[in-house]
Amino acid sequence: MLKKILNNYRLVLASNSPRRQQLLKGLDIDFEVITFPGVDESFPGHLKGNEIATYLSRQKAESYNKLLDKNTIVITADTIVWFGNNVLNKPSDSKEAIQMLTLLSGQMHTVYTGVTITSLDDQFTFFSETKVWFKSLKEKDIEYYVENYKPFDKAGAYGAQEWIGYVAIERIEGSYFNVMGLPVQQLYSELERFLLNQN
Questions:
Q1: Per-residue confidence at 198, pLDDT binned at 50, 70, 90?
Q2: Cα–Cα distances in Å, from 125 out to 117, 118, 177?
Q3: How far is Cα 74 from Cα 61, in angstroms, rounded to an integer?
Q4: Mean pLDDT for the stretch of residues 162-171
Q5: pTM higher than 0.85 for the full model?
Q6: Greatest CA separation for the chain
Q7: In this structure, are residues 115 and 190 in contact, taking their beta carbons and an 8 Å threshold?
Q8: What are phi and psi of 76, to 5 degrees?
Q9: HEC sequence for the chain
């Protein structure tokens, strides 16, 4: 069982996201949150879809190398929304958020989360892919959501666990938790396997 294996380790979640912290808590394992400011989130222009998410999760991991010792494991993650062969990052303002949600209205998009597990001597990266279908949204509904929920810290300008998720998401194919920012079922299995391979 993962909880028992982790008794010998210090597990660090390197994420400011309250959603990732909440999801990891749901696995009933002990961890601490450590974040460093100014982690570079740029990526080479030729990367697409899951390649961007996995690249960024590994880039984030590099910033935490100084934390590593033989008993420390660091988890980094990055979630992107992929639509029309383009990545929809976090919106910079209300206008950009409205533009993104207008694009997603009545369409299917894909959410990718890349996750990197790093120890002193090893590193493993995986990704989760979820397809999300939005119903057609009225302009006033998009404006209401942006004005009241200010989704400027969320890829694609929305949180599935918020009002917009309740009214807009018609169906998903894949992990719902991945859309929230951390595919915890997959992480549980991969983290257990990773730790067993450390011994």
A1: confident
A2: 6, 9, 18
A3: 7
A4: 97
A5: yes
A6: 56
A7: yes
A8: -125, 150
A9: CHHHHHHHCEEEECCCCHHHHHHHHCCCCCCEECCCCCCCCCCCCCCCCHHHHHHHHHHHHHCCHHHCCCCEEEEEEEEEEEECCEEECCCCCHHHHHHHHHHHCCCEEEEEEEEEEECCCCEEEEEEEEEEEECCCCHHHHHHHHHHHCCCCCHHHCCCCCHHHHHHEEEEECCHHHHHCCCHHHHHHHHHHHHHCCC
Q: Which residue among the candidates 30, 40, 69, 78 is catalytic per the annotation?
A: 78
**Which tokens hold the place of 67?**
């934390």
117-140: b (≥16 Cβ within 10 Å) or e? bbbeeeeebbbbbbebebeebeee
Return the amino acid letter for 66.
Answer: K
The pLDDT of 132-152, averaged and rounded, is 97
Structure-block tokens of residue 42: 């740029």
> Residue 28 catalytic?
no
Write down the residue that tokens 């011994």 correspond to: 199
pLDDT the model gives residue 38: 73
Residue with tokens 């790093």: 118
Nearest to 188 by CA among 57, 23, 71, 65: 23
pLDDT (0 to 100) of residue 199: 64
